[in-house]
């Protein structure tokens, strides 16, 4: 494959992964539209998020375990399933039916995301995760600005229908990537997937990734409901998501480099504080403070998730483990909303805050343990760096 075509295919893979994980970034706006278009109570938002992420985690686990054995046509079917589910979301208003529809959407996008993200991470872990989050945040900004405008100009149902463009574009990108892959796949013999040892430090980083994503989603999935309860205007919510996404995009640019600017445990502690900001901000009910809290949440979550995921992927050359790191994203996305729903139902907002604090603290402990294990057992110098080892063959890139 020519270098120019290879770069185009790499960018298409990164963009596909960004679309695969776009839904969590637009959830506050999505649920505002959903509650306006259908009789869905804000208290049910967490369960709908849980249904979406349940499907996503199942899809991720399928790709994690089966890997390159899955035929490409299956991922085309996944994109079509997500497209149909997206269209049905705008037309069906029964909450029970919506749970199944959103689970189907999550299943399709979860499989697409895990395949694309693990393939992109074979290139350069921090750079790949940084690029995916950067594009996801920029797309979230566009949706946060455009979707409410469409809802005001037409109606919320049409704004929900317009979101079907996400799986449609993902489908087109995968077809392009497939065409770009075919010449190299014919020229390069398919290599059986090899397993590599995984260090305790890598496992700790993967655990930290799961915990910080879980705490992010625990707060993020209830942000819309908390804002509505505090009588914060829908336009303010959309503006906050847009401004927060821009701040997160700038953060992604700053952490895409492979060398960290500050110790990882310190990043985790600062990020943890920023993740908690929307809870007291919505309790106060001030619009400006709410916007600031969303900005802080986006900065903290973007920085720590990119850094943990990138370092975990770089800590092992094992493609099986690299797919597992991608799975921590969908796993955390379901655990966060479900745990948040349980705690909120049992203890109110105080339960949500307490659960987030415990999860963030566990993530910080995992980061500290990772550093201790890394110093106790330094990496072998005869191993190839992950980006060189995993991208030695073009066909391996596409079947990661």
**With helices defined by DSSP (H or I, 4 residues minimum), what is the helix count?**
18
Largest sheet at a glance?
Answer: none
Computed CA radius of gyration, to the nearest angstrom: 20 Å
Give unreliable regions as ranges. Answer: 184-191, 380-400
The structural class is: mainly alpha
How many strand segments?
0
Q: Could you characterize what this model shows?
A:
This protein is an all-alpha fold and 400 residues long. It is 81% helix and 0% strand. Helix 9 (200-220) packs parallel to helix 15 and helix 14 packs antiparallel against helix 15. Keywords: Membrane, Transmembrane, Transmembrane helix. The chain crosses the membrane at residues 47-64, 71-90, 96-116, 128-151, 157-176, 203-230, 236-256, 263-282, 288-308, 320-344, 350-374. This is MFS transporter. InterPro entries: MFS_trans_sf.
Question: Key features?
Answer:
MFS transporter, MFS_trans_sf, transmembrane helix, 400 residues, membrane, disordered C terminus, transmembrane, mainly alpha, single chain
Lay out the secondary structure:
Layout: H1 3-20, H2 22-37, H3 45-66, H4 72-89, H5 95-121, H6 125-153, H7 156-162, H8 165-187, H9 200-220, H10 223-229, H11 234-255, H12 264-276, H13 278-284, H14 287-314, H15 319-347, H16 349-376, H17 386-390, H18 394-398
Helix pairs in contact: 1-5, 1-6, 1-8, 2-6, 2-7, 2-11, 3-5, 3-15, 4-5, 4-8, 5-15, 6-7, 6-11, 6-14, 9-12, 9-14, 9-15, 9-16, 10-13, 11-14, 12-14, 12-16, 13-14, 14-15, 15-16
């Amino acid at each position: 494959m020519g270098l120019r075509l290879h770069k185009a295919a790499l960018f298409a893979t990164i963009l596909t992964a960004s679309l695969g994980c776009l839904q969590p970034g637009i959830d506050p706006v999505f649920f505002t539209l959903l509650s306006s278009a259908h009789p869905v109570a804000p208290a049910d938002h967490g369960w709908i998020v849980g249904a979406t992420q349940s499907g996503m985690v199942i899809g991720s686990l399928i790709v994690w375990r089966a890997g390159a054995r899955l035929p490409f046509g299956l991922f085309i079917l996944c994109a079509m399933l997500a497209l149909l589910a997206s269209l049905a979301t705008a037309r069906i208003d029964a909450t029970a039916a919506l749970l199944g529809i959103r689970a189907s959407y999550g299943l399709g996008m979860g499989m697409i995301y895990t395949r694309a993200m693990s393939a992109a991470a074979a290139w350069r872990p921090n750079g790949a995760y940084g690029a995916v989050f950067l594009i996801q945040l920029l797309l979230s900004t566009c949706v946060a600005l455009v979707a409410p405008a469409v809802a005001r100009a037409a109606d919320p149902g049409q704004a929900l229908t317009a979101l079907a463009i996400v799986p449609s574009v993902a489908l087109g990108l995968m077809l392009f990537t497939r065409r770009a892959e075919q010449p190299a796949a014919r020229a390069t013999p398919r290599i059986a997937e090899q397993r590599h040892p995984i260090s305790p430090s890598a496992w700790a980083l993967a655990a930290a990734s799961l915990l910080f994503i879980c705490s992010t989603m625990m707060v993020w999935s209830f942000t819309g409901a908390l804002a509505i309860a505090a009588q914060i205007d829908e336009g303010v919510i959309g503006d906050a998501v847009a401004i927060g996404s821009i701040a997160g995009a700038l953060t992604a640019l700053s952490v895409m480099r492979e060398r960290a600017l500050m110790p990882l445990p310190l990043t985790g502690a600062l990020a943890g504080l920023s993740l908690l900001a929307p809870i007291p901000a919505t309790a106060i009910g001030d619009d400006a403070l709410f916007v600031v809290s969303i900005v802080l949440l986006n900065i903290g979550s973007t920085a720590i998730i990119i850094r943990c995921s990138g370092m975990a992927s770089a800590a092992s050359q094992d493609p099986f483990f690299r797919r597992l790191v991608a799975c921590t994203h969908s796993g955390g996305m379901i655990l966060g909303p479900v745990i948040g729903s349980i705690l909120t139902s049992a203890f109110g907002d105080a339960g949500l805050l307490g659960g987030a604090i415990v999860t963030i603290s566990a993530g910080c402990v995992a980061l500290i343990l990772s550093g201790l294990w890394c110093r106790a057992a330094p990496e072998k110098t005869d191993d190839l760096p992950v980006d060189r080892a995993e991208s030695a063959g073009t066909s391996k890139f596409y079947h990661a």
